[in-house]
Design goal:
By secondary structure, this protein is an all-alpha fold. The chain has a domain at 745-903. It is globular and about 95 Å long. It starts with 6 loop residues before the first helix and ends with a helix. Keywords: Cytoplasm, Nucleus, Protein transport, Repeat, Transport. Residues 364-374 have a biased composition (Acidic residues).
Length: 904
Amino acid sequence: MSWEPQPDGLSQIITLLKQSQSTDNMVQRAVQLKLEELNQYPDFNNYLIYVLTKLTSEDEPTRSLSGLILKNNIRIHGTELQPAIIEYIKQECLMALGDPSPLIRATAGILITTIANKGGLQNWPELLPTLCDMLDSQDYSVCEGAFGALQKICEDSADVLDSSALNRPLNIMIPKFLQFFRHSSPKIRSNAIACINQFIINRTQALMVHIDTFIENLFHLSSDDDREVRKNVCRGLVMLLDVRMDRLMPHMNSIIEYMLIRTQDSDETSLEACEFWLTLAEQSICKEVLTPHLPRLVPVLVRGMKYSDIDIIILKGDVEEDEMIPDREEDIKPRFHKSRTHTQKPSVGGGASGADGAARAMEGNDDDEDIDDPYDEMDDDSNLSDWNLRKCSAAALDVLANVFKDDFLPILLPILKETLFHEEWVIKESGILALGAIAEGCMNGMVPHLPELIPYLIVCLSDKKALVRSITCWTLSRYAHWVVSQPHDQYLKPLMKELLKRILDANKRVQEAACSAFATLEEEACTELVPYLGFILDTLVFAFRKYQHKNLLILYDAIGTLADSVGHHLNKPEYISMLMPPLIEKWNNLKDEDKDLFPLLECLSSVATALHSGFLPYSEPVYRRCISLIQQTLNQDLASTTSPGQFEQPDKDFMIVALDLLSGLAEGLDCYIESLVSSSNIMQLLYQCMQDSMPEVRQSSFALLGDLTKACFQHVHPHIADFLPILGHNLNPEYISVCNNATWAIGEISIKLMEDTKPYIPMVLAPLIEIINNTNTPKTLLENTAITIGRLGLVCPVEVAPSLQQFVRQWCSSLRNIRDNEEKDSAFRGMCQMITVNPVGVVPDFIFFCDAAASWMTPKKDLHEMLQKILHGFKMQVGEENWARFVEQFPPQLSERLAVMYSI
């Protein structure tokens, strides 16, 4: 297709491109409107590609900008463009890959990738062969331009390139790329490695065939003069460590030596190399291969933890007092609300040793628990790149401390002595960070040193450098568990006093670090903090008046955690009169669409649960507003579904947080919530929320249903026929937390419905049995499922007992680990009822029942009698001789415990 521009049109577009480089917002907006208007004309895109590829009289930034505008047009309107125009753009782009200007080549490469992504590589069959041919061009610009485009395609379409739909082009491309590892141009060597690196993690077959050649070539380039090449070599080796350790093992010593050198580079290669230690720590061979190198590696990591001069400038490390400077809104990270999940508390030392180890099988991490990365929080600043050498070195030290445990300390302690007491604050700061990083892995070995170190750190909390004060808060929080276990006067009191001062620090970073550290201390200390509550609340309430926007959100968290930790001890008139007025004032000042409501509602939910009836005077306006937030979100959701163009979709977090706060109110106020429920349409709203398409909405609505069932069942009862089928339908472990809360709510409802649960048993029992027998079910869900099955057996033993054999073993293994409470009590009564109806069902797994019975610390008298009766009944049934043989299988502790508890 030959196409020529009109001179008027061309000059109009060039004027626009010049104007769009203006810094004036008004001009920018006018240009935006004009560009949208020009999109009505099909050949507008021809002009854009013409400016990029043909108009060499224009300056490069203007030409490149033309290409970027075209890229956006293709991304947004690509499918509507005429095929002839797309063909013209494709031809021109391929030609422009050899442009003398690197900027124009790169822009053409971006355009090619965009077209390939939008239309699919299979619709441009000649693209890859053409690019591969261009690699062989004698013209350097053509080769480099083609490689730039190929690198972007490999990055965006790694999976597609390995598919049979395209005839597996990688079989040709990978050997081709390998030829360029020895090219004279560093840019091309770097591109060649970057292309192949895209295929390591997926173990792409076409690469695995050439893996030895690839590794050999990587080694050859390891001492390359070019920084980008070395960076890509490091990146490749780190990924290979995960994927093809077998191939690296023979060379592991020299790889470690190499990475040690690279980790000390003064550019970003050091970060790529530092990732190696994080990855190596996850491999089983880590201890064996790294031990000889530790004395050299540890000092390198600690040095990497020191703030660079640039970091200090970005973090305004020389600004000590900034509390009066208002926060910039863009510095405030979005917070995500974690919906309520009903969980069991683990038993305290009660469980006897496991029958057959069955009970220990499920003690891993709960699938749906988020583990926060402590290094994300460490220097929380949106200006510092999220992940840098300092954080990576600290994380590496942490994971290695977890691998080597106390063997780490002979190397680390001398370094700590040197750094912790250094007169240069940057070095001292890195030592304090290192001390925090090893807290988890080396805790046992550190204990003898803590009586000296903790008081020193408490002194560092008032260091004159804000960055030292803030990291000290973090490090002390990592040792909070030990501090709480010592006599209060020695460490807890002085630490609390200094941390509370830091919460009121004149530096915002220190305020934030102190608030987070204090929240950790609260979680560790729980009710140990009760004697100091007045003192703590004084500080937290004062901080309300002092804090800028960002830290206010963290303060809510510290107050919520305090309420969770001390519970009903907060319910004293003097504490309520301190805490509630500032919270309610914030609550009244925030508009319904302000996202700051999230952390405030979360905080109020914890406070309402803790205060019980003490929250009554504040409950009505809080309750009404939650109902209103749910109503508004549902209305907006309906509007946006029925007429999508006119109404935006709502942010459902408002509804989720409101449901969770209502749960907190129901749990805290208990039967006092009845009058609020009776005068509102909460049941209708709940019915809608329970059927929402978003799992988190359903999760929170099931939690609320369970809490309302406990607090005022008379209002839930009339709706049971509507609610229970929805709960049954959500017993789907694909959504762990939704399933968990639905399971718990079914158990709570059954306890209230009693024998009227009967018609619903077929609907819920089969999915619950399936969940309890699934090996992938996480611990929390297993426990709640076992409790609910037990409760169903309590209210409808005749209906549930016939299935006993299908779940009794898993049931016993799940419930032996939770502490004595009402839920465990009702579940065990149900089990006793079911065994009475169907004694044969428990016989093959009776050892598991014995173990579960032994897990009680102090069962209620009548439950104790029921359990004893079943145990003695079984013994009588099988006779002395068989019983003796049976008991021989027991671990000794189990026999002792049964003898003591049940005289058997």
